[in-house]
Amino acid sequence: MTDLAAPGELAVQPHFSFFQALRHGAIAWSVKGLVNSMLTFRQLSQWWNKGPNVPDMVKTYPCRPSLPIRIFFPKGYERNSNTKLPTLFMVHGGGFLVGDPSDDDLVNRRFADTHGFLVIELNYRKGPGSPFPVGLRDLEAILIALYSDLNAREDIPATERLPIDQGRVAISGFSAGACIALGACQLPSIQEKVRFSAVIPVYPVVDQSIKPGERALRRHYKTTFPGLRGNPTDLLARLSPYFVWSYLPYGQDLRDPLLSPAYAAREELPRGVFVVGAELDQLCHEGWRLACRLGGKRVPPDSAEEKPGQEMPAAEAGKLIMGNGDERFYWENDEEVQGVKKSVRWLLIPDAVHGFNLIPPSMHADPGAVEDAKSKAIAYEKVVAEWLVNVIWKK
């Protein structure tokens, strides 16, 4: 009998008894049904009252007709222009079980308009009906179809073309989406045809061999905060076992780098890697370890012995902790390897919960936390955009 909520590690995904599987399946499908109902209501509301964050284009490809992608042009961009744009592909989160590309509309619109990028939100299927590696292969198929159109079709009207500068392309994702983005970067077809120059995993899932019960022990808890930030239990802890069960087939190697990028070789990832963690998040520790390994830093123990960040709240609300040499919160490592410039960054968002930049204000249950999260989201996006432009894509 397997208990995914217990601390420890696994090498392969265990087999569940019939009654365990029945229980996990009932809970997973119930959560999925509830979230999908809320999503339908939100989509109807948006259709009726179009907000300022809607995409400029929604596009599908014959290879995945049920998986539309959402495209955001920067403010003021002339669609019939021949000007190519730096491009950021995005992958939404949701524990490999729920979530929708429209979840990231606000972030994508803001990033496109503020930093002058073309932003393309990708799409993928999820568990329990579509476990690993279905979602990863969905991303692969959509990207290859997109690039085939980009490079081969001259008959596409100017207003339908995607002005991607193929020398300035990066991919990012949130949580489960960050995991899938890191996996996509390792696929030979993507390395050959898309050639991402950077990946930005934000509060990523990167090591599925860690049991969910162990993850919750590897972060600080700051119970002096009001609302969600002061919760003595982790935001993801209760649902994590069901997310894991939904996505991972029985017998799956949990250290497969496509599933657990913590085990990916450096040469299999883009030359630029910028890991962003949230301090009050059970996933923060594994993202920290990944960044340290890729950046040549001392890798913290694979246990709760050391936790990222600090025990006390940050001295200043709404601010990132950078520029003071405190490598718990930020460091950078740039080097040249066999004539190739490589760059790794680690940025820890202080006093931030998982999904801090995406969850509804009501979930924070604290107006101060809402403002704090918004300020830090805008600040980290600026840091990432500047890194891409001034480091990764600098001539």
Give a brief outline of the structure.
Keywords: Hydrolase. The protein is an alpha/beta fold.
**Overall helicity:** 25-40%
Mean pLDDT, to the nearest integer, reads 93
**What is the spatial order of strands in the main beta sheet?**
1-2-4-3-5-6-7-9-8
Tally of discrete structural domains: 1
**What coarse outline follows from CA principal-axis ratios?**
globular
Task: Let me know the CATH homologous superfamily.
Answer: Alpha/Beta hydrolase fold, catalytic domain
What does the radius of gyration come to?
Answer: 20 Å
| Strand/helix succession | HEEEHEHEHHEHHEHEEHH
CATH top-level class: Alpha Beta
CATH topology: Rossmann fold
* Helix/strand/pairing category: alpha/beta
CATH architecture tag: 3-Layer(aba) Sandwich
How many DSSP E strands?
9
Uncertain runs are none
* Biggest sheet record: 9 strands, mixed
Keywords: Hydrolase
Protein name: Alpha/Beta hydrolase protein
Pfam families: Abhydrolase_3
Organism: Microdochium trichocladiopsis
Give an overview of the whole structure.
The protein has 395 residues and is of the alpha/beta class. The protein has a single domain (18-392), classed as Rossmann fold, CATH 3.40.50. Helix content is 33%, strand content 18%. The protein is built from ten helices and nine strands. It has helices at residues 18-48, 105-115, 134-152, 176-186, 188-193, 212-215, 240-247, 284-294, 361-364, 367-392, and strands at 57-61, 64-72, 85-91, 118-121, 164-174, 198-202, 272-280, 330-337, 340-353. The protein has a nine-stranded mixed β-sheet, with helices on both faces. Strand 3 (85-91), helix 2 (105-115) and strand 4 (118-121) form a beta-alpha-beta unit. It is globular and about 55 Å long.
